[in-house]
Amino acid sequence: MIRLRTVKLVIFGEIPAAAERFKIFFLTLFVFRTKKGKTEYFANILNTLKAMKLLEGKVAVVTGAARGIGKAIALEFAKEGADVAFTDLAIDENGKATEAEIAALGVKAKGYASNAANFEETHEVIDRIVKDFGRIDILVNNAGITKDGLMMRMSEAQWDAVLTVNLKSAFNFIHAVTPIMARQKSGSIINMSSVVGVSGNAGQCNYSASKAGMMGPRGIRANAIAPGFIMTEMTDKLPDEVKEGWYKQIPLRRGGTPEDVAKVALFLASDLSSYVSGQVIHCCGAMNC
To answer: Higher confidence at residue 50 or residue 60?
Structure first.
């Protein structure tokens, strides 16, 4: 005869972050004891728990995500169960490919053509996203450009272009998304800053100012990530000797990858960081320490 008894196994006590991962504070295991004293556990319950994802049921908006760091973040979020809406200046063949790559992970995905620096367009695209997805839980302000040059040689147009895209676009999206998150009484806003926003960099006064300005109610958390030298299409255009110079400044002796930054964004987007707000997290291989 099989006897049934209930055993309560404490997994992570009362840590909300762990509860998000496993959805429960206590796991009840049913233990069957046969006459021979053997114990059988419901292994399938444990397997189900392992399969649960950090962002299951959440909707993320990632700006400038057709390629590079934004794309890596969108894919990382999708792997953890989030439906993903992303924006870029144009959803061309590259954007369509990104959309298909995200959708292939089994989540809802859609790319939207939008000028992040335009206030009205931003509000319009957020309205469309809410209509298509029903809610917004996560916003990643990733859209950005560079137009480098020494201050004495930099034109007003170069300054304005970088500040408008890198900084004003973040304001536009936060302005559009905050009322939605306030009604939900929850949300996570992640601003992509840069280590040069902290320490500056020769020839990048406009970029540094725009990224410094991104360091920044009602259950909404806001944090910033300050990536260091990340290997993207933007940095690939630099001469090899410039790249080598950067590597020598980095204690880990390598450039970062978009995936390195995406993992930090995943932490900030999930409830693993439920008590983290108002922080700037460096992802730079210790180059700015």
So the answer is: 60
Amino acid identity at 248 = K
- Distance between CA 202 and CA 193 in Å, rounded? 17
Please provide the average confidence, as pLDDT, over all residues in the chain.
75
Q: How far apart are CA 232 and CA 252, in angstroms?
A: 18
Question: Nearest Cα to 60, choosing from 113, 134, 147?
Answer: 134
Which residues form the catalytic set? 207
Neighbours of 286 (CB within 10 A): 11
Query: Residue 203 CB: number of other CB atoms within 10 A?
Result: 14
Question: How is the beta sheet containing 220-227 ordered, strand by strand?
Answer: 109-113, 83-88, 59-63, 138-141, 187-192, 220-227, 280-283
**Residue 95 CA to its chain's centroid (Å):** 18
CA dist., res. 220 & res. 268, Å (int): 12
DSSP 256: B
pTM, 2 dp = 0.72
What is the DSSP code (8-state) at residue 36?
A: T
Residue 24: pLDDT band (50, 70, 90) is: very low
201 touches 179 (CB < 8 A): no
Q: Which of 59, 68, 199, 81 is nearest to 143 (CA)?
A: 68
Distances (CA, A) of 4 to 30, 35, 48, 149: 7, 12, 22, 74
Query: Is residue 230 a contact partner of residue 287, using CB atoms and an 8 Å limit?
Result: no
